[in-house]
Design goal:
Number of helices: 10
CATH topology of the largest domain: Rossmann fold
Distance between the termini: 54 Å
Shape: globular
Number of strands: 20
Strand content: 25-35%
Structural class: alpha+beta
Helix content: 25-40%
CATH architecture of the largest domain: 3-Layer(aba) Sandwich
Number of domains: 2
Order of helices and strands: HHEEEHEEEHHHEHEHEEHHEEEEEEEEEE
CATH superfamily of the largest domain: P-loop containing nucleotide triphosphate hydrolases
Strand order of the largest sheet: 6-7-8-3-9-10
Radius of gyration: 25 Å
C-alpha cells in the first residue's frame, strides 16, 4: 500500500505517454519494474566486486524461455515458440531490427507483458504467476526515468526506502553504487544538472543498488551521441565483469552487441536466427540474414553445380566460385555466397587463391583507417573490398581493371534468403 501511494504521488507525473495508458497505470508498471519489494529470499549480487558470487550447479540454465509465444491481437505472433537458455552471470544481447520482438521478450521476462503460451523460468522457478515486483529484477530504460525533483542520491535511495532498509544501509549502498558508475560527489545534484551520459549512469546505478541477480536493459544508450555511447558500452561491460550479475540487453546496434556481450541472439520476426559469441556470429554466420545483419557483407547469388565434401562449386553469372558449404545443399540449388570485404585481396600473387577474378573499380572512398573500394565482379556490382590504410597499400583509381581473390573458406554457402533486399 505504501509503495502504491508513493507511485501515485511521485512516479506518475514523471512518465510520458506509453501505448495510451493513463498515468496511474504507467506508474504501477514502472513501480513494478524498479521499486517494489524483491523476493523475501533474495540472494542478489553484492555491489562489492570482491564478494562476487561463484557459479552453482544448474546455473547454465538460470533464465529459460520454454516455447514462449506472444500475440497482442490473438492472430499475429510477435514472438514465436522461443527457446532460450541464459547462464547465471552471462551478458546476453537480443539483437535485431525494429519490430523483431526483442523488446517484447525483455518485457515478458520482466513481467510487464504476459506470454500467450509457454513458460519463463528464473533459477528453476516458473514466473507464470509471479508479479514483476517479486522477481528481483533491475531494469534500465532508454529514457532514464529518473525523478527530476529528487537529487541523485535520493533517486538511488528511493527503491531502498520502499524496501524498508535502514538509513545507514541505504547510505552505504548509495555510496557503493555511485562508486561503481564513477559518479562519486554528484549525489546532491538533480538529474537536470547532469549530462545525458551521467543521467544514464544514475539509471544503471538505481537498477543495481538493491543488488539484483538479474538486470534487464532496453536500448539504454539509444538517446546518446556516438562517442558517449561508446564510452558507456565499455562502462557497462566493466560493471558486468566486476559484479558477475546476469544481464540481458536489447539493442538494434550491432556494435553495442559485439562490444559488450558474451553471446548475441540475432532475432528476426519473433524467432532466434542464430545465437553465438560475437566472433562466431561475425566469422561463421549460418544464415544469410545473420551474415547481412552482422557487419558488412558481400552477397553473390548463384546456383550449386557440384558438391565435394565441405566445398561447393557455385555458378555466379557464368563464373565458377568455390565456397565452404554451411547449409545443406545439392546440385541445382539456389544459394547465396557470403564474403566479408576485408577477406578479399586486390592484385594477389598469381595462383595464390582458388577464387581469382577480374573486376572493375566503380568507386573508391577514403574512411580514415581504410579505403572502401567498390567493384563489379562476376557480373555483380557493389562488391565491397576494404583495404587497410597502411604504408604501401597501393593506389586504386575509379575505372581501373584489377585482379581480386579470396579463399573458399572465406566465402560461405548460405540459404538463398527470399527476403533479402
Amino acid at each position: 500500500m505504501r509503495a502504491s501511494r508513493l507511485a501515485d504521488r511521485l512516479i506518475a507525473p514523471c512518465l510520458g505517454d506509453a501505448r495510451g495508458e493513463p498515468a496511474p497505470a504507467r506508474a504501477s508498471r514502472f513501480a513494478d519494474s524498479i521499486i517494489l519489494p524483491v523476493p523475501e529470499s533474495n540472494t542478489g549480487v553484492a555491489l562489492d566486486p570482491t564478494s562476487r558470487r561463484s557459479p552453482a550447479a544448474g546455473d547454465a540454465e538460470y533464465v529459460v524461455f520454454d516455447r514462449v509465444s506472444k500475440s497482442y491481437d490473438g492472430r499475429t505472433r510477435v514472438v514465436r515458440e522461443l527457446d532460450l537458455q541464459i547462464a547465471r552471470g552471462e551478458f546476453l544481447t537480443l539483437l535485431g531490427p525494429s519490430g523483431s520482438g526483442k523488446t517484447t521478450c525483455l518485457m515478458m521476462l520482466a513481467g510487464l507483458e504476459t506470454p500467450t503460451s509457454g513458460v519463463i523460468r528464473i533459477a528453476g522457478r516458473s514466473m507464470r504467476h509471479v508479479p514483476p515486483r517479486r522477481r528481483g529484477i533491475g531494469m534500465v530504460f532508454q529514457h532514464y526515468a529518473l525523478f527530476p525533483h529528487m537529487t541523485v542520491g535520493d533517486n538511488l535511495a528511493f527503491p531502498l526506502e520502499v524496501r524498508g532498509l535502514d538509513p545507514d544501509d541505504r547510505r552505504a549502498r548509495v555510496r557503493r553504487a555511485l562508486e561503481l558508475v564513477r559518479l562519486e560527489g554528484l549525489e546532491h545534484r538533480r538529474p537536470g544538472q547532469l549530462s545525458g551520459g551521467q543521467q544514464q549512469r544514475v539509471a544503471i546505478a538505481r537498477a543495481l543498488v538493491f543488488e539484483p541477480d538479474l538486470v534487464l536493459m532496453d536500448e539504454p544508450l539509444g538517446a546518446l551521441d556516438r562517442l558517449l555511447r561508446q564510452e558507456l558500452q565499455y562502462e557497462i561491460r566493466r560493471i558486468h565483469r566486476d559484479l558477475g550479475v546476469t544481464m540481458v540487453y536489447v539493442t538494434h546496434d550491432q556494435h553495442e552487441a559485439m562490444v559488450m556481450s558474451d553471446r548475441v541472439a540475432v532475432v528476426r520476426a519473433g524467432a532466434i536466427e542464430q545465437i553465438a559469441p560475437p566472433a562466431t556470429l561475425y566469422e561463421e554466420p549460418d544464415r544469410s540474414f545473420v551474415a547481412r545483419f552482422i557487419g558488412e557483407n558481400n552477397r553473390l547469388p548463384g546456383r550449386v553445380t557440384g558438391v565435394r565434401g565441405d566445398i561447393c562449386d557455385v555458378d555466379v553469372s557464368g563464373r565458377q566460385v568455390q565456397a565452404l558449404r554451411v547449409v545443406p545443399c545439392r546440385t541445382g540449388d539456389p544459394v547465396l555466397l557470403s564474403i566479408r570485404p576485408e577477406r578479399v585481396s586486390i592484385a594477389p600473387a598469381p595462383g595464390r587463391y582458388t577464387n581469382e577474378f577480374d573486376a572493375t573499380v566503380d568507386d573508391v572512398t577514403f574512411v580514415g583507417d581504410h579505403l572502401r573500394v567498390r567493384v563489379t565482379v562476376c557480373g555483380q556490382p557493389h562488391f565491397l573490398i576494404k583495404i587497410p590504410n597502411v604504408v604501401g597499400h597501393g593506389a586504386v583509381l575509379e575505372g581501373d581493371r584489377v585482379r581480386i581473390g579470396w579463399t573458399p573458406a572465406d566465402s560461405r554457402v548460405l540459404d538463398a534468403d527470399a527476403d533479402a533486399p
